[in-house]
Design a protein that fits this description.
326 residues, UDP-N-acetylmuramoyl-L-alanine:D-glutamate ligase, 10 helices, 15 strands, binds alpha-D-ribofuranose
């Protein structure tokens, strides 16, 4: 089965963080109090908002980003990298006398990571900044959100999008325990298992417990839910109560940084193109798997051809019937 996409590219607005990732690779991650000798240090453009913007652009969307950069060298480099991707940056403002966001990331040989974020200018993104881009949001098909910028700003963006019938997708990362109930009143929430556990209080150890958490997230206000389960795929639960497990795509994991961002971007685009939650979740699983098979946040974001290539390989192994996305 071939699923064709509409001729006009979906319009995506992302409200979120822009970081410079300082990535140290080492054989394994250090334990608390331990000093390790690392293998390499790289400066790589990242930030959950910027990563999702790049992910969406590479999958073929028209993308605008709303965010803030500091007046430092990282800010210049990050703006240039986003410009190269063709992302509209009118909504990316400069914060004077402030550093750009930075993420200190350790990645071990297994591909697992740990991340400490210093928000810098991301922490100064205000509801007024969002309001100034109200027209861009009103004209979009999808609004992508995460939690590396102030929560009041995220709430302002959700409200604006809802007033204009724009599809809202929240990737609730980094995880938070205390949140205003309006935060989950979005069209789709797509946490990973630890974020879903924190939001719902349900420990996720199996597909069944993940599906229970998905149902709880709906009771808490989300219209539809997809919970990612790392190399175990994902579960979904749609607005009609249809739910199920999405099989993982098999790849060699090199770096899981931003796999969730690739997932959220792909989910949003496929839904904007008219896919069901299940179909969009499958597409997103493939995008996340490609990202996990590559080093670095923005450099690892897949194109549509990359996602199709992985889906095609999976189809070869599991027989006909897998969709592929032209
Ligand atoms: O989701 C991955 C991102 O989280 C990294 O690029 C880093 O900047 C942190 O924000």
């Amino acid at each position: 089965m071939t699923i064709s996409v509409p001729q006009t590219p979906p319009g995506v607005v992302v409200v979120g963080s822009i970081n410079m990732d300082l990535v140290v690779r080492s054989t394994r991650l250090p334990a608390p109090g331990e000093t390790l000798i690392g293998d390499s240090l790289s400066e790589i453009p990242g930030g959950k908002g910027a990563n999702q913007a790049v992910g969406a652009a590479r999958l073929g969307a028209d993308v605008s980003l709303i965010g803030r950069l500091g007046d430092d060298g990282f800010g210049d480099t990050l703006r240039r990298a986003l410009g190269v991707e063709g992302i509209q940056l009118d909504g990316v403002e400069l914060t004077r006398e402030c550093c750009s966001g930075v993420a200190i990331i350790g990645v071990e040989d297994s591909g697992q990571n740990c991340i400490t974020v210093v928000p810098g200018a991301n922490g100064r993104l205000t509801p007024d900044d969002v309001q100034r881009q109200a027209l861009a949001i009103a004209q979009a098909d999808v609004l992508l959100l995460q939690l590396e910028v102030p929560i009041q700003t995220v709430l302002a963006a959700i409200e604006l999008a809802k007033t204009n019938d724009v599809l809202t997708i929240l990737d609730p990362a980094p995880a938070i325990r205390d949140y205003p109930p309006e935060l989950l009143s979005v069209d789709v929430v797509c946490p990973n298992e630890s974020e879903a556990a924190l939001l719902t209080g349900i420990e996720i150890t199996t597909t069944e417990s993940a599906l229970r958490a998905a149902e709880k997230l709906q009771q808490l206000g989300a219209r539809q839910v997809v919970i990612t389960l790392g190399d175990k795929g994902a579960v979904f639960r749609d607005a009609s109560g249809n739910s199920g497990h999405l099989e993982p795509f098999s790849v060699t994991t090199v770096d899981t940084t931003a796999a969730g961002d690739a997932f959220a971007a792909a989910l949003g685009i496929r839904l904007a193109e008219g896919g069901s939650l299940q179909d969009a979740g499958r597409f997103a699983c493939a995008a996340g798997a490609v990202a996990a098979s590559r080093k670095g946040a923005q450099p690892g974001m897949p194109s549509r051809a990359d996602v199709n290539a992985l889906v095609r390989v999976a189809r070869t192994f599991s027989g006909p019937g897998e969709p592929f996305y032209s």
